Amino acid sequence: GHRNPQGMALHPETGAVWVHEHGPRGGDEVNIIEAGGNFGWPVVSDGREYATGLPIGADAPPSGMIAPIHVWDPSIAPSGMAFYTGDAFPDWRGDVLLGALAFQLLARLELDGDAVVGEERLLEGELGRIRDVVVGPDGLVYLLTDAADGGIYRLRPAASAS
Predict the structure, then answer these.
(1) Vertex 18 angle, CA 30 and 45, to 5°
(2) CA-to-CA distance for 157 and 159, rounded, in angstroms?
(3) Sign of CA dihedral 91, 89, 85, 21
(4) CA nearest 76: which of 124, 42, 39, 114?
(5) How far apart are alpha carbons 102 and 79 in whole angstroms?
(6) Model-level pTM?
(7) pLDDT in tens, 77-126
(8) Which helix (H) or strand (E) holds 141?
(9) Within a 10 A sphere around the Cβ of 115, how many other Cβ atoms?
Protein backbone atom coordinates (compact mmCIF):
# COMPACT_ATOMS: atom_id res chain seq x y z
CA GLY A 1 0.00 0.00 0.00
CA HIS A 2 1.06 3.46 -1.00
CA ARG A 3 -0.96 6.53 -0.06
CA ASN A 4 -0.20 9.19 -2.66
CA PRO A 5 2.93 8.75 -4.83
CA GLN A 6 4.12 12.00 -6.40
CA GLY A 7 7.59 11.33 -7.82
CA MET A 8 9.32 8.31 -9.28
CA ALA A 9 12.80 7.74 -10.70
CA LEU A 10 15.03 4.84 -11.70
CA HIS A 11 18.30 4.55 -9.84
CA PRO A 12 20.95 5.14 -12.54
CA GLU A 13 23.24 2.32 -11.37
CA THR A 14 20.91 -0.35 -9.98
CA GLY A 15 17.78 0.28 -12.03
CA ALA A 16 15.70 0.13 -8.83
CA VAL A 17 12.47 2.12 -8.80
CA TRP A 18 12.42 4.86 -6.16
CA VAL A 19 9.20 6.65 -5.28
CA HIS A 20 8.16 9.33 -2.83
CA GLU A 21 4.71 10.09 -1.57
CA HIS A 22 2.66 12.50 0.48
CA GLY A 23 1.76 11.45 4.00
CA PRO A 24 -1.09 12.89 6.05
CA ARG A 25 -0.06 15.76 8.35
CA GLY A 26 3.53 14.53 8.30
CA GLY A 27 5.01 11.27 7.17
CA ASP A 28 6.00 12.12 3.59
CA GLU A 29 8.29 9.26 2.62
CA VAL A 30 10.74 7.76 0.14
CA ASN A 31 10.53 4.06 -0.73
CA ILE A 32 12.49 1.70 -2.95
CA ILE A 33 9.93 -0.46 -4.71
CA GLU A 34 10.32 -4.23 -4.37
CA ALA A 35 8.32 -6.66 -6.49
CA GLY A 36 5.54 -8.04 -4.30
CA GLY A 37 6.57 -5.75 -1.43
CA ASN A 38 3.97 -4.55 1.05
CA PHE A 39 4.59 -0.91 1.93
CA GLY A 40 1.74 -1.06 4.41
CA TRP A 41 -0.36 2.08 4.04
CA PRO A 42 -1.94 2.99 6.45
CA VAL A 43 -0.23 0.72 9.00
CA VAL A 44 3.24 1.92 7.94
CA SER A 45 2.93 5.71 8.25
CA ASP A 46 4.46 8.50 10.31
CA GLY A 47 1.46 10.70 9.50
CA ARG A 48 -1.38 11.86 11.73
CA GLU A 49 -5.16 11.99 11.48
CA TYR A 50 -6.30 15.35 10.12
CA ALA A 51 -9.17 15.77 12.60
CA THR A 52 -7.61 14.47 15.82
CA GLY A 53 -3.86 14.73 15.25
CA LEU A 54 -3.46 11.16 16.53
CA PRO A 55 -0.79 8.94 14.92
CA ILE A 56 -2.02 6.72 12.09
CA GLY A 57 0.65 4.04 11.80
CA ALA A 58 2.06 1.40 14.10
CA ASP A 59 5.19 2.13 16.16
CA ALA A 60 7.17 -0.24 13.93
CA PRO A 61 6.27 -1.98 10.67
CA PRO A 62 4.66 -5.36 11.33
CA SER A 63 6.41 -8.43 9.97
CA GLY A 64 6.16 -8.58 6.19
CA MET A 65 5.75 -4.81 5.72
CA ILE A 66 8.49 -2.51 4.45
CA ALA A 67 9.47 0.71 6.21
CA PRO A 68 10.34 3.78 4.15
CA ILE A 69 14.01 4.68 3.74
CA HIS A 70 13.38 8.37 4.51
CA VAL A 71 10.56 10.32 6.17
CA TRP A 72 9.77 14.03 6.45
CA ASP A 73 7.79 15.30 9.42
CA PRO A 74 6.55 17.94 9.07
CA SER A 75 5.50 17.29 5.49
CA ILE A 76 7.39 19.05 2.73
CA ALA A 77 4.85 17.87 0.11
CA PRO A 78 7.42 16.31 -2.26
CA SER A 79 6.87 16.61 -6.00
CA GLY A 80 9.07 15.73 -9.01
CA MET A 81 12.11 13.54 -8.47
CA ALA A 82 15.39 12.82 -10.30
CA PHE A 83 18.75 11.26 -9.63
CA TYR A 84 21.61 13.62 -10.38
CA THR A 85 23.85 12.03 -13.04
CA GLY A 86 25.52 15.06 -14.60
CA ASP A 87 28.96 16.63 -14.35
CA ALA A 88 28.04 20.26 -13.59
CA PHE A 89 27.60 19.53 -9.87
CA PRO A 90 30.08 16.71 -9.18
CA ASP A 91 29.37 16.63 -5.42
CA TRP A 92 25.72 15.82 -6.20
CA ARG A 93 26.41 12.83 -8.47
CA GLY A 94 24.21 9.90 -7.43
CA ASP A 95 22.04 12.01 -5.09
CA VAL A 96 18.27 12.37 -5.31
CA LEU A 97 16.81 15.78 -6.15
CA LEU A 98 13.17 16.54 -5.50
CA GLY A 99 10.88 19.51 -5.36
CA ALA A 100 8.77 20.48 -2.37
CA LEU A 101 5.41 22.15 -2.72
CA ALA A 102 4.70 23.08 0.91
CA PHE A 103 8.20 24.31 1.78
CA GLN A 104 8.84 25.70 -1.72
CA LEU A 105 12.35 24.28 -2.04
CA LEU A 106 14.62 21.85 -3.81
CA ALA A 107 15.75 19.01 -1.55
CA ARG A 108 18.93 17.09 -2.23
CA LEU A 109 19.15 13.72 -0.51
CA GLU A 110 22.71 12.48 -0.09
CA LEU A 111 22.96 8.72 -0.49
CA ASP A 112 25.28 5.99 0.66
CA GLY A 113 24.03 3.01 -1.32
CA ASP A 114 20.31 2.82 -0.57
CA ALA A 115 20.57 4.85 2.65
CA VAL A 116 19.81 8.56 2.93
CA VAL A 117 22.71 10.01 4.94
CA GLY A 118 21.97 13.71 4.62
CA GLU A 119 19.59 16.32 3.28
CA GLU A 120 20.35 19.76 1.88
CA ARG A 121 17.53 22.24 1.32
CA LEU A 122 18.09 24.72 -1.50
CA LEU A 123 16.21 27.75 -2.88
CA GLU A 124 13.71 27.73 0.01
CA GLY A 125 10.98 30.27 -0.75
CA GLU A 126 12.87 31.73 -3.73
CA LEU A 127 10.97 30.25 -6.69
CA GLY A 128 7.63 29.15 -5.25
CA ARG A 129 6.21 25.62 -5.37
CA ILE A 130 8.63 23.40 -7.29
CA ARG A 131 6.49 20.90 -9.19
CA ASP A 132 9.09 18.98 -11.20
CA VAL A 133 12.85 18.38 -11.32
CA VAL A 134 14.79 17.19 -14.37
CA VAL A 135 18.50 16.72 -15.02
CA GLY A 136 19.22 17.83 -18.57
CA PRO A 137 21.67 16.22 -20.98
CA ASP A 138 23.91 19.23 -20.28
CA GLY A 139 24.16 18.16 -16.61
CA LEU A 140 22.23 21.21 -15.43
CA VAL A 141 19.13 20.95 -13.24
CA TYR A 142 15.79 22.24 -14.52
CA LEU A 143 12.92 23.12 -12.18
CA LEU A 144 9.26 23.69 -13.03
CA THR A 145 7.09 25.81 -10.72
CA ASP A 146 3.31 25.62 -10.71
CA ALA A 147 2.12 29.18 -10.04
CA ALA A 148 -0.02 30.94 -12.66
CA ASP A 149 3.04 33.09 -13.42
CA GLY A 150 5.53 30.29 -12.71
CA GLY A 151 8.29 29.18 -14.97
CA ILE A 152 11.09 26.82 -15.85
CA TYR A 153 14.36 27.56 -14.07
CA ARG A 154 17.85 26.31 -14.88
CA LEU A 155 20.40 25.74 -12.11
CA ARG A 156 24.04 26.03 -13.06
CA PRO A 157 27.18 26.23 -10.94
CA ALA A 158 28.18 29.69 -9.74
CA ALA A 159 31.06 31.26 -11.64
CA SER A 160 34.40 30.59 -10.00
CA ALA A 161 35.74 33.34 -7.74
CA SER A 162 39.10 33.48 -9.53
Answers:
(1) 30
(2) 6
(3) positive
(4) 124
(5) 10
(6) 0.92
(7) 999 999 999 999 999 999 999 999 999 999 999 999 999 999 999 999 99
(8) strand 141-145
(9) 10
